[in-house]
Structures are given as C-alpha cells and as structure tokens.
C-alpha cells in the first residue's frame, strides 16, 4: 500500500483495562489471525516457550484493513505495560502517529494511564479515546468520558464505546484509526533513519531488532550502522510481523519491521538508537536516545520477569556468598537461559550456586512452613515431620542400559515403580525419587551411563608461556624466568582475591 494508507498506532491502557483483549480482537477482525489459529498460536508459543524458557509476546503486528474499498496497512506497536519503563514506552510511542487510549468504563482513568498519555502528547500523537467493557452492568461510559475530558482536557464527546470481550465497537475503532490518525510522511528518498523500539535476544539468531523506518528504506543485505553504539552489521534478514515474523526484501519510510544481523549483544542495538546505512549515513540520529544506565541485579531480574513469567525470585543472603537472589526455574535449561540473558542483555557477571529444593515442615502446633535452607529449619522440638518434594520420572532407554539406569535410580534414593518394554529393544523405566536428588547432576549422570564416548583426549593444564620470547640461549636464563613465574603464582595464591568461577559450583556437585 502507498505510504498514505499506512497507520502506525499503539494502545495505552491501565493494567486489566483490556489492552490484550482488544489487540486480539483487532487481529481477529482484520483476519490477521484466525480465531481458531489464535488459540493454536498461543499453544505453539507456549511450546516454544517451554523449549526455550522465554515468553514470546506480541511486540508489533501488521494488519490489513479495507475501508471504502481502499486497503490500509495498520501497524500496532506494543508498549511495555510497566510504569518503570517510561523510556521504552516513549520510544514505542515515538514510532507511532497515534494511540488508542483504552479506559475501563466501569473503573475510570488511573494515574498510570496518565503518565503514558502525557508521553503520547509529547510525541504529538493523535489520541483516540475508547471506553471499554460497556457490557458490564457497572459500566458508566458517560461519567468516565467526562472524567477523561476533565483530567486530560480532550474532547470525549465522540469517544468510542466498545466491549473487547463481546466484540462490540471494534469496526468503529478500526475506522477511527484510518480516519483520525495521520499517515507517516513520505520520506523514502532521504538517507535511512530507522528507530529501534524493541529488541530481544534469540539464542539461535542473535539480537532481533524491532524498528520503524522513519526515513529512507532498508533492504536485506544492506550494510547498516547503529548510530549511538557505532556498531556496523549486515542485515541478513528483514521482515514484518504479521504477527509472526515474515521475511520481506525491503521496507520503506513509514513501515514497521524487524531485522536480524547476527548481533551478539543487545547493547549494540539498544532501544532508541537509530539505524542508518554505513555507506550513506544520515546526518543526525533521531532524537530521544538515552544512554543505558548500569543495572542492578534486582532491576535486571524484574525486567526479565516481564517477559518470562516462569521466572521467580526473592532476596536471599548466605554467609558464604553475601547478598543475592534465590530463583525458581522450570529446569536447568531455563536456568541457563536466564543466566545467559542476564549476562548478555544486562551486562551482569553472575555466580549461580547449586540448585536446591523447598521442604515442607509440619510444626507441632499444626502449622506448615516452607524451608529452603538448613539454617532455617525449626528446632527438633518444634517440628512434627518434614515433607520432601518428589518427582515421578519416566526414563526411556535402549534395553542394554536398563541395569546402569536402575543402579542410578537406586543410588539416588529412588523407588522403582515399573518397567515396560515399548518395543523389543526399548524400555520405559519409571521411578519416584526426591527432587533434591534430581536437580543437580542427575541428568548428566543419566547421559554418561547410557551414552557412548565417541572420542576423548586428556589435555594438560595450560600455563602462560613465559619462555615464548626466549629463543635458544642460555638454560640459566630460562630457569630464571620460570622461577619468577612460580614466585608470582605463589604470591597470587597468598594475597590474591579468590575468584571462584561459576563452573566450580556445579563441578563440586558432580564429584562422586
Ligand atoms: P494486562 O495484560 O495485565 O496489562 O491487562 P490488559 O490491559 O491487557 O487486560 P486484558 O485484555 O488481559 O483484560 C483484563 C480482564 O478484563 C480480562 O479478564 C478480560 O477478559 C477482561 N475484559 C477485557 N475486555 C473486556 C470487556 O470488554 N468486557 C468485559 N466484561 N471484560 C473484559
């Protein structure tokens, strides 16, 4: 579609006022996602999520809408729901020309909504007021419309009344997006400037950047430069979000899309940075970029939790390690992904200690408390019994490994439940065993007892080669250098700060 038929908008709403429900309805009504597919897609994402331990949430979606026989391209750009991210919200809004202001007609305007409305006004966005949940018996659209008028000072006489749940008023909203929100300016001939409004780290493809082309155009294979970080890359893949990623060959001013360029660190392509061409640079970057501030672990965990609901954490202090957080994961893979993301995306250096489990302690007075640390265990007199979490595991194995696997189960306080031959050579072995016995190196042990070693080699320890600059010559000189090295090492052990590498904690666990 021509640029005059593009509309870029976002939805501003307080939590629970119906942003997601409305977004789903817009996608459904424009045929972007079929109703049946929607559930399906959700499930697919859940699988992916489980596989990778991260939530894939809607960041942007391109919809096709036909009004008066004219096709329009509507881009919905999502804004982070959390108030702490006003910078990220402001960059998402800067990528739009308009916004829907969704207010629950049974509740009214909330303070948090206001902050985002002001950000939208600062970015000169056209705001369309929408009163949602009019199907509720307690809905008072007239009162709430007046409230918006009074608080924000905008005309709400034509505010759209809708029910995202019942699908009432959705067409009116789509029509208003077309008629009220201005199209982007046609600046496709200018040097490229694209605004990054979101990004995430994909373990397979590197950082995926979401952007709005403000000026010029971008093609697959273009050599691009991020103006704030100064980093250069080749755009291996560009595409649109519909809402799944769909590759295209080129994107022009006014359009919204994503790109991947084997970017290793989110810091190279931060939200708010401007993408331009390496060979034909834009004169100045788009306004509004702000430097990253160093993150505390708590901030980083909170931020990560926003798109990874499965991540749980609470403050903890240990006598050996000092302050930290106790985190809950779906499994070791999830843990590794979270660690990787904290290190790569938030520039943190972490030490993760061995996993542990939570016990239920039944007290003498009938109460039950959770206990995750031996030092917190109630005194013997006060407790009646302790319950340990158990898992039921089903191990599928070729029949020759049944023996070693059962041995492992037995060693780990497991209780043998059953064994069935699935085929002549494959069996399923079922055990019930304490979760505490499984969270450590159980899986590694299982693999090492049942996997063949294909190749192995013993490597000697590496030392710094202090003799590298010493060709031939007198043996006493070499001895002197080696002696100096040995002395240096001894001193390091005595006075050096001990850095315990992450691997050490897991390695200790794996010792027999
Ligand atoms: P967050 O994702 O937490 O930010 O919330 P949200 O603003 O996206 O709200 P969401 O769409 O999840 O809706 C919140 C609740 O309101 C859900 O239980 C919806 O089913 C309900 N809801 C949304 N729209 C309507 C509506 O038009 N009528 C009624 N009765 N309920 C609605």
TrEMBL record:
Q: Which residues bind GTP?
A: 13-20, 78-82, 132-135
Q: Which Pfam family, giving just one, matches this sequence?
A: EFG_C
Q: What class of enzyme is it?
A: hydrolase
GO cellular component terms, alphabetically, are: mitochondrial inner membrane; mitochondrial matrix
Keyword Transmembrane helix, does the record have it? no
Q: Quick one: signal sequence residues?
A: none
Domain (Tr-type G) spans: 4-185
One biological process term from GO is:
translation
In which domain of life is the source organism classified?
Eukaryota
Entry keywords, A to Z: GTP-binding, Hydrolase, Membrane, Mitochondrion, Mitochondrion inner membrane, Nucleotide-binding, Protein biosynthesis
- Membrane-spanning segments: none
| PROSITE patterns, sorted | G_TR_1, G_TR_2
**How would you describe this protein's topology in the membrane?**
Peripheral membrane protein
This entry's Enzyme Commission designation comes to 3.6.5.n1
Q: Which reaction does this enzyme catalyse, per its entry?
A: GTP + H2O = GDP + phosphate + H(+)
Chief place of localization: mitochondrion
Q: Which GO terms describe its molecular function?
A: GTP binding; GTPase activity; ribosome binding
**Where is it localised?**
Mitochondrion inner membrane
Protein's job: Promotes mitochondrial protein synthesis. May act as a fidelity factor of the translation reaction, by catalyzing a one-codon backward translocation of tRNAs on improperly translocated ribosomes. Binds to mitochondrial ribosomes in a GTP-dependent manner.
- Protein family (similarity comment): Belongs to the TRAFAC class translation factor GTPase superfamily. Classic translation factor GTPase family. LepA subfamily.
Name recorded for this polypeptide: Translation factor GUF1 homolog, mitochondrial
Organism of origin? Oryza meridionalis
**Species classification:** Eukaryota, Viridiplantae, Streptophyta, Embryophyta, Tracheophyta
């Amino acid at each position: 579609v021509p640029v005059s038929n593009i509309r870029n908008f976002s939805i501003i709403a307080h939590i629970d006022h119906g942003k997601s429900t409305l977004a789903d309805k817009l996608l459904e009504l424009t045929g972007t996602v079929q109703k049946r597919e929607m559930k399906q897609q959700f499930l697919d994402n859940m699988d992916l999520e489980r596989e990778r331990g991260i939530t894939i949430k809607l960041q942007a979606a391109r919809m096709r809408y036909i009004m008066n026989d004219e096709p329009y391209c509507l881009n919905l750009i999502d804004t982070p729901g959390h108030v702490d991210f006003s910078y990220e919200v402001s960059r998402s809004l800067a990528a739009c020309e308009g916004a829907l202001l969704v207010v629950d007609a049974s509740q009214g305007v909330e303070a948090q909504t206001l902050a985002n409305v002001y950000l939208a006004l600062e970015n000169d966005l056209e705001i369309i007021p929408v009163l949602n949940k009019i199907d509720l018996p307690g809905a008072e659209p007239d009162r709430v419309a007046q409230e918006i008028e009074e608080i924000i000072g905008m005309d709400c006489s034509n505010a759209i009344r809708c029910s995202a749940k019942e699908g009432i008023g959705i067409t009116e909203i789509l029509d208003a997006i077309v008629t009220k929100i201005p199209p982007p300016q046609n600046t496709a001939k200018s040097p490229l400037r694209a605004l990054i409004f979101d990004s995430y780290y994909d373990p397979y493809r590197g950082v995926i950047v979401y952007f709005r082309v403000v000026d010029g155009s971008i093609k697959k294979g273009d050599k691009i430069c991020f103006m704030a970080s100064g980093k250069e890359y080749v755009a291996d893949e560009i595409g649109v979000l519909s809402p799944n990623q769909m590759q295209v060959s080129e994107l022009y001013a006014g359009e919204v899309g994503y790109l991947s360029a084997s970017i290793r660190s989110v810091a190279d392509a931060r939200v708010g940075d401007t993408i331009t061409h390496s060979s034909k640079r834009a004169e100045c970057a788009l306004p509004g970029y702000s430097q990253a501030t160093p993150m505390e672990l708590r901030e980083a965990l909170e931020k990560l939790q926003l798109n990874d609901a499965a991540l749980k954490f609470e403050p903890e202090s240990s006598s050996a390690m000092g302050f930290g957080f106790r985190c809950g994961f779906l499994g070791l893979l999830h843990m590794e992904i979270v660690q990787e993301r904290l290190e790569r995306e938030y520039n943190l250096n972490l030490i993760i200690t061995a996993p542990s489990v939570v016990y239920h302690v039944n007290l003498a007075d009938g109460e039950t408390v959770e206990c995750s640390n031996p030092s917190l265990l109630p005194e013997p007199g006060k407790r009646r019994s302790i319950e340990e979490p158990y898992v039921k595991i089903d191990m599928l194995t070729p029949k020759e490994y049944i023996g070693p696997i059962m041995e492992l189960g037995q060693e780990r306080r497991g209780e043998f439940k059953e064994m069935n031959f699935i085929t002549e050579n494959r069996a399923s072995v079922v055990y019930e065993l304490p979760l505490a016995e499984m969270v450590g190196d159980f899986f590694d042990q299982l693999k090492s007892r049942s996997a063949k070693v294909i190749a192995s080699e013993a490597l000697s320890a590496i030392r710094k080669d202090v003799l590298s600059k010493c060709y031939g010559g007198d043996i006493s000189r070499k001895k002197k250098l080696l002696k100096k090295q040995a002395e240096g090492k001894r001193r390091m052990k005595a006075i050096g700060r001990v850095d315990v590498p992450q691997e050490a904690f897991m390695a200790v666990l794996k010792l027999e």
